[in-house]
Amino acid sequence: MQRVEIFARDNYRCVFCGLVFPEEDLTVDHLQARSRGGDRSGGNLVTACGACNLKKGRTRLAHYLAQNPDAYRNFLEYATHVWKRHLAAIEEEIRKLRTDSGGLQSR
Ligand SMILES: [Zn+2]
User: Fold this and answer.
1) Are 87 and 32 in contact (CB under 8 A)?
2) What's the 102 CA to ligand 1 centre distance in angstroms?
3) Taking the CB of the first residue and of the last residue of the chain, which one, N or C, has fewer CB atoms within 10 A?
4) Strand 26-30 to strand 45-49: parallel, antiparallel, or no bridges (unpaired)?
C-alpha cells in the first residue's frame, strides 16, 4: 500500500497519540519490522505522527506500548486494520513483559 492510502485508511490519525495530523507530519510505521519478516501490506502498517515515531525510535512495539499506557489504549482503539495475528502477538508479548517484571509500574 502507498503511504497516502495508509493515512487515508487511518483517517490521518496517529495510532499512538490518537490525534489527527496533516500528511506532512505523518509517517508509516511497521508493526513487524521488515528485518523480522514484516511486509509492506496494510495489515502490517499503521499511521504514526513524527513525534510518536521519534519517541518510539527503535524500541520494540510491545515494549513501547507496555511503557506507555496511553499509547497502548489509543493503539487498541485506532489500529483497527491491523492483522489479528499481529495484535495477538503484541498482546502476548506485553503480557509476558508484565509477568517477567513482576508488574510494570503504573502511572
Ligand atoms: Zn502521535
Assistant:
1) no
2) 29
3) C
4) antiparallel
